[in-house]
Design brief:
Keywords: Coiled coil. The chain is mostly helical. The protein contains five helices and four strands; from the N terminus they run ααααββαββ.
Length: about 240
């Protein structure tokens, strides 16, 4: 295949644009914000689970407190009833003695229940503080996730702008090459990542391998308009003078 040396040199400009487009693609896949978001999402889930756990505990304590208060109210009501009955003067001596014993039992029971209620209330207060803390921690985790997502979106928007601009440049540049040369370049780029590179100082600019003497001699003997390729990686080698 033959192509004007000036046209071959323009392949280096095209390769530079393709390299930038490849970097954009790689950058899009490897944005540090992507890993950061994954970690932030995991942290948010953990904080949500922690909040659910303490809220569940608080709900259980609320039910226990309500049940305890109900039982205390029932015991207190029974004591009030016994006291009224004792004060009515309508009961006999034996029944009065029984009521006194029952009232003493009720008062002891009420005291135990009230102590238990106080302990429940103290536990509830501590768990309520845990709930408040868990909510704050969840809010922090969500804020960190939103901030990382915003940075990712900004980075992606910048990459999109660069990609759009450079893709337009490439489209214009590609029209300046013969079809057969462009097809060869694109096929090599798709297979190996680099379609064309400079040959200078005995080395291929694509694979960075220094060619042996036989290959170097063959390249130097080729006509200026001959399209030559690297024996190692297949890239189109664009020959430039050492002074270029």
């Amino acid at each position: 295949m033959k192509a004007d040396p000036a046209v071959q040199r323009r392949l280096l400009d095209l390769a530079a644009v393709d390299a930038e487009l490849a970097r954009v693609t790689h950058r899009r896949r490897t944005l540090p914000e992507i890993a950061e978001i994954a970690e932030a999402e995991q942290l948010v889930r953990a904080k949500q689970d922690a909040l659910v756990a303490v809220e569940t505990t608080l709900g259980d304590l609320d039910r226990d407190v309500k049940r305890q208060e109900t039982e205390i109210d029932q015991v207190r009501a029974r004591g009030d009833r016994d006291r009224k009955l004792m004060q009515s003067g309508s009961v006999g001596a034996k029944q009065l003695t029984d009521l006194e014993h029952e009232l003493a039992t009720i008062q002891r029971r009420q005291g135990i229940l009230e102590d238990d209620l106080l302990e429940l209330m103290e536990r509830r207060e501590a768990v309520e503080a845990d709930v408040s803390f868990a909510r704050v921690e969840l809010d922090k985790a969500r804020a960190a996730l939103e901030e990382a997502a915003a940075r990712r979106d900004t980075a992606l928007a910048d990459l999109e702008t660069t990609e759009t601009r450079r893709a337009a440049d490439r489209s214009v540049m590609a029209k300046g090459f013969p079809d057969d040369l462009l097809k060869l370049y694109d096929r090599q780029r798709e297979q190996r990542g680099i379609g064309a590179a400079v040959f200078q100082s005995r080395s291929c600019g694509a694979c960075r391998i220094e060619l042996d003497r036989g290959a170097v001699s063959k390249l130097k003997e080729a006509a200026p308009d001959e399209v030559v390729r690297c024996d190692e990686c297949g890239a189109i080698l664009v020959r430039v003078s050492e002074q270029s």
